[in-house]
């Protein structure tokens, strides 16, 4: 039992990062020296996936270009003897890995985006990765950890993490019955509940392993929160038919869909980067304290 297909919903407009995302996909924004979507694809490959299914829009050609071969660039790097850079460019999409691109005709929510993957996925179990949820650290990449749960239980698996109760309105929240350390069976799921009504503070984040039954259930799902077809609502229907597990993964999640989370990822992963980590750390230590002083008395937004 191995997940061979991974779906990447990447059709969103990335409005939080305008104007940077006016002509380029949000998922191409770099964290240190790799775009967000490349981290996501590497994670899928580490879990055994061989086919990457991108649900895109007409504004996302930069993703297709990134994973295409650039023979002219490779020839220049080879001629100049820049073997390290050549290897990095060729490793963007390793041999044996294929990409499929499917247009989402309308922005109708995450559930609808995943339903667009049906022609490529068919009757196979599959993974979903939201590229702007960057997860680093842990003994294995997040999806590889979830793969172990999937292999043990033969069931759908959702990645979850505990969030402050006052932030439950931002997430899909699950009610669970624990079955082991960091592992639970989901009893119910609700999209963006008021903190006073949330069944727990276990939030679903951007990693899923799903059975193909979800496609039929999405087709029956009516628009929900925000007037969109919510994956959460289809999963709630799936719970009535199949077991769905919640897994509290090892590692740290960076919400790169927000400006603050994106900057946090760049700083922390920059500090760990083998090429620049030491120099970057020295730079941060030498910053003028005035730059770190609070200029507005503590009025902040996450962007």
TrEMBL record:
Catalytic activity annotation: alpha-D-glucose 1-phosphate + UTP + H(+) = UDP-alpha-D-glucose + diphosphate
List UniProt keywords, sorted A-Z.
Nucleotidyltransferase, Transferase
Tell me if Coiled coil is a UniProt keyword of this record: no
Molecular function terms, GO-annotated: UTP:glucose-1-phosphate uridylyltransferase activity
Q: Which Pfam families match?
A: NTP_transferase (PF00483)
Q: What is its EC number?
A: 2.7.7.9
- Origin, by domain of life? Bacteria
Q: Membrane spanning segments where?
A: none
| Residue span(s) of domain Nucleotidyl transferase | 10-268
UniProt entry tagged with the keyword Ribonucleoprotein: no
- Top EC category: transferase
Stated family: Belongs to the UDPGP type 2 family.
What is this protein's function per UniProt?
May play a role in stationary phase survival.
Q: What protein am I looking at?
A: UTP--glucose-1-phosphate uridylyltransferase
Native species of this protein?
Spectribacter hydrogenoxidans
